[in-house]
Sequence to fold (340 residues):
Amino acid sequence: MTRQQRILLWLATPTAKLAATYLAIIMLMSVSFSIILYQVSVRPFDRPAPRSSQFMPLPRDRMVFNSQIQQELEVRFGEARRALMIQLIWVNIGALFVGAGISYALARRSLRPIEEAMEAQTQFISDASHELRTPLTVLQTTNEVALRKSKLSIRDTKNLISHNIAETQKLRDLSNALLELLKDDSRPISLSSVDIQATTSDALQSIVTIAQAKNITVDNEVKRLRIRSNELLLEQLLGILLANAVKYSRPTTTITLVSKKVADKVHLSVIDEGIGIHPSDMPYIFQRFYRADKSRTGGESSGYGLGLSIAEKIARRIHANISVVSTPDEGSTFTLELPE
Ligand code: ADP
Fold:
């Protein structure tokens, strides 16, 4: 690409366009101000000089002398006008350069948050497409392989169908998670008095079967405490933490749920004895699509790395805070700080 083409491309960028708009505004103000200043400054020069005869009759030689002075004054006024104009032109040339620098800096500053938001959106779309592609490829490949076989027994067909159903379920979970993340969270939510014991019991319903299947004991020690929250969102948030606790726990371990009143907050903790989180993964676990090392967390079946980002989003909506303490190979404690 030639230098000229690069400049033309740059001129078409939003930064250049916005900088040009800012510069146009600065120059419009500078030029208008200069015109007004010039007009105001030269107005007294343009007033006709009082004729000496207006005051008293003068002898002829004095009149000649006066007209010479007047001519001289007009020459000087002309020079002063020209000098003022040249100075104002220089001031405007200076304003053009300084204004260009300021406009560029302002344009970059104004566009940075928009650029960052767009980058995040592009990243989100690319990550989401990547995640969607995996189950779709698996579905396509297994179906193609089955189709190529000359004969399919009833057992093979049933296996294929249940595999397809499992992959479709994954796709549904993923699209639900994506929709959840894209939900507008600026809408106000209704708050009411919520009994955290009842909400925890409701949330536990969603994981009892998988916990039983892994022989995991759930010890619910949550007390009857009332907080101002949104019941459905709190249940959804607890559901995510509980599902993770089960997912990352080894069989025959225990998941404990405890509550504690601390000042004007209620702390609700989900404690597991699972694989724990490595300190190097800790800063990223709430990021979208982040999954810790697959070999530790149970391979592809572990999820899409969206659960905790949804949990954090819900926590923000109900004015709660999530914190986590974890030791690898010992377990993790996720605590919700809920406002009373
Ligand atoms: P995923 O679908 O992978 O579970 P999450 O956003 O829910 O996605 O979690 C992000 C990562 O945080 C997980 O991949 C896992 O490594 C880690 N993690 C979350 N909860 C736990 C937990 N209770 N025990 C151990 N690791 C956890």
